[in-house]
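Q: Focus on the chain.
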Amino acid sequence: MDIKKWFEKFKSIIILLPIIVFSAIVPLIVFTKYVPLNDFISSHWFGEPVSADVFSYYKMLVIIGCAVVALIIMIYKLINKTVRVKISFVFFITLAYGFLILLSAVFSKFAVVAFWGAPERYEGAIVLLSYLILFIYTITFADDMKSIKIIMSSIIISSVLITTISVLQFFGFDIFKNHFFKSILNMLPNNKNPYEVNTIFADFQSYSTMYNPNFLGLYISLILPISFAFFASRKSNSGRLTASLLVYLCVLSLIGSSAAGGYYAVVVSIVLLLFFSFSYIKRNVINVVMLSVIVIGLLLLTNMFTGGRIAGNINILGISNEVERIETGGKSIYIKNITLGDNHVFIDTTDKDFTVINENKSISVLDVDKNEIPVFVYDEGENDTFPGNLIPFRDSEYSNYIITTNDDYSIFAVKAGIRVMYFHMTDEGVRVPGLNNELDILHPVSRNKFLYERPYLFSGRGYIWAGILPLLKDTLILGNGPDTVFLTYPQYDYIGKINMTGKFNVIIEKPHCYYLQLAHDTGLISLILLLSLFAYYFLETIIVLIKNKRRGIWRIYTIGIFCGVSGYLIASLMYDSTVFVSPVFWTIFAIGISLNRLIKTAGKSSKQKSGQI
C-alpha cells in the first residue's frame, strides 16, 4: 500500500490525533522537570531557585504542541477550501475571549508569568489560547458520529488508566512514592537536583496524575456522567460489565480524593442524568439494576477489604465536614488585629485582648486597662513551638493562651487556641515572619468583609475569596494576566493567614474558583463571555433533547456530556482551571456543541453539515 492510499484510509484518525492527544494523553503525562526560577518569581513563590515540577510542565508543552499542529491543519484546509469559516455565536464568543486573553497578557505587569504561567501550574495565555484553538478544531472536525465515537473512546480509555492509578493510591500503592517509578519519572536525586522529589499527600489518598485530590474530584465530576453514558451505549452484557467497572473506579476515585466540591457536582449531575434518562431507565430497568448491584457490591467489598476506609472517607455532599468546620470556626479564637511596637505586641482577639511585653529577657502581659496579668515561667519547657521558655497564664480565663520564647528571648510566640503567632525582636522593633520567612511589619489590607469574617467557609475559600474580590474592581475590561494570582494577591495579609491556616507565611497560589480566576486573570468581560457561551450550550442542548425524541447513541452521548459539563461547571465554583483537567473539559464541551449541530442539521448532506469553523 503506497503512502497516499494509507493516508486516505487513516485520514480521519490522523486529523483527530491532536484532539486525542490533547484530551486523552495529556492528563496522563507525568515526568519531572527542574525549572529554574528568576529572583522575582522565586521571592514570590517559596524562595527556592528551582521548581521541581512533576505533573504540569510537560503537560503544558504537549498542549501547546497539539494546538500548533491543529492550527497548521486548519490553515491548510482553509487555503485548500476544504473547510470554511462560519461566523457563529460560538465562534464569535471564542474569538472575543481569546482576544481578551491576549490583551490581558500583553498589558500585564507580569508578562512572563502571564504568557507562560505560574510555577507548577503553567496555565498562561499561550496554554489558554491553545485550549480555544483545540476547542474550535474539535467542533470543526468531530462532525460525525464516527469521529465522536473515536474521541470519546480515547477519553474513556484514558479515564480507566487515571482512575486505576487513583484506586491503587486508595489501596495504599502510590506509584509516585514507589522507588522504581520515581526513578523512571526522574524524581530521585541526580546531578541537577540533589534532593528526592516527594509528593505531599498522605497514604491512601487519591490524586492520580492530577497533582491534587481536588483536581481529581473535578475530573471525576466531568467523567462520571460520561461513564454512565458509556454503560448505556453498550449492547452486550460483557460491555455493560466493563462499563460498570469504570463507574466503580470513578466512584471509588471520588471517595479516595475526599473532594467536597466533587461530591456536590456529582450529586447534581446524577440528578440531571436521572431526569433526562428517565425514558431509558424505564425501558432498561434490568440493565440499571445490574449497574447498581455491581457498583454498590464492589464498594461494599472494598469497604470490607480496607477495614471500613470507604465509610470513613465518604462524606455526603461534604455537608458533615462543612457543618463541623463552621461549628468549630464559630467557637475558635480569631485574631481581629495585631499591633507591633518596639518591644511589645498588642493582640486583639474575638475572646481576649492583651499586650505582651518582651523586655530585658523577661515576658510580662497587660490587659486593656494596663493591669498586669500574672504568668508562670518554666525554663526550657517542652512545647509544640520551639524549645525554650514556656509561659502559661495563671488566670483560668486565659487557659486558651500560652506564650513561649527561645532561650535568648529574641523570638517569642503567642498561642491563641489553635493559632500560633511568631514574633521576632529586631533593632527596628517587633516583626513577623512574612513571605519566605522575611521579617516584615503588618500592612493594611483591602478585603471583602462578609467573607473575611467567615474564613472557614468552603474549606477556607472564604478567606481566599475575601482577598480576591477587591482586586476585581481593576479588571472590568482586562485582567491582571493569566496565572498571576500569586503575584497580585495580598500575600502580606498576615493576620488573615493566621486565621485561615495558623501561619503567617502561607502563599496563596490560586483563587480556588474558576469564575473568580477568569475575572481576575482575563477580566470581568471575559467571564461574562464564557458564561454566555455555557448558557447558550445548556439552552441549545435542552431544546435539542426536547425536540428530538429519537433514540440513539447521539442522545446517550448528548445527555452524558450535558451532565458532565454541568458537573464540571458546578465543581468549578470551588476549583480552578488547570492543565490537568481543562483539556478534557474543552474537548467534551466541544463535542457537546458539535453533537447539537449534528442533530440540528440531520437530513442535510454531509457536505453541508461538516467542514465549518
User: Anything to note?
Assistant: The chain has 24 helices and 13 strands.
